[in-house]
Amino acid sequence: MTRAVDNLLSIVVLISGRGSNLQSIIDAVATGELPVEIRAVISNKPDALGLQHAVQAGIATQVVDHRQYPERAAFDAALQSAIDEYRPQLVVLAGFMRILTPAFVHHYRGRMINIHPSLLPEFPGLNTHQRVLDAGRQETGATIHFVTEETDGGPAILQAGVAVLPGDDADSLAARVLEQEHRMYPVVIRWYAEGRVRLDPDGRVRFDGAPLKRPRQLDSEAGAPC
Ligand code: GRF
Asked: Fewer CB atoms < 10 Å away: N or C end of the chain?
């Protein structure tokens, strides 16, 4: 069910590196698939490659370098002011590799989403793909979730499953998971723009007006009107 969106959803995207998920969002906006205005891309690393994607797309960029701040709280406060200058309705973490303080997370409660390359709640944290292989799993994937104080622990919105194949190493697995990731943010950001997905005060995801019992699955969205 596609609903008309009167105004563009304003977003700020936070990155730390390559920015391929950012690029997938930029591409979806460019094709008209996403009713979104990317107001800025902010990185904690001055040399993040993804900043170049933003510049090429004519999007404002800003660096809030965490190394300039002695404490996490001071960095988060600076980051928060940088973000809030753009008055985004949604903050999108796309490979943003910093642990966030509770005050920061609280400020953006229900307005901040993250993508993680595993089927959460399994394998939160770093080195995900190697840990999946070491555990002998036959399936992995990616998850988009609302950000809460628990790192990679917020309520999940959308997941995509990816088979682990014989001979996979962490790089080959990461590449196949990334292909799915690139399909995911445009779907979830569109849902948010259309008011279809929200975080309830009780901490559960509400989708199309009803509590979401388990995360939506990308493949069941494929081909379905959204
Ligand atoms: C992705 O795998 C994402 O899930 C994780 O960090 C990686 C970022 O990749 N949080 P990119 O910078 O979007 O290319």
From this structure: N
Q: Which domain holds residue 88?
A: 9-117+146-159+182-217
Total tally of structural domains belonging to the chain: 1
In order of 59, 96, 124, the CA distances from 143 in angstroms are 26, 15, 10
Which atom of ligand 1 lies closest to the CA of 178? 2
What's 107's domain CATH number?
3.40.50.170
Residue-wise pLDDT for 127-179, tens only, equals 999 999 999 999 999 999 999 999 999 999 999 999 999 999 999 999 999 99
Cβ within 8 Å of residue 153, ≥6 positions away: 120, 121, 124, 145
The pair of structure tokens assigned to 67 is 């190394």
CA 173–ligand 1 middle distance (angstroms):
13
What are the residue numbers of the active site? 116
Is the CB of 152 within 6 Å of ligand 1?
Answer: no
Whole-model pTM: value is: 0.95
- Alpha carbon separation from 101 to 50, 124, 131, 148, 153 (Å, rounded): 24, 17, 26, 10, 14
Rounded to the nearest angstrom, the distance between the alpha carbon of 4 and the centre of ligand 1 is 30
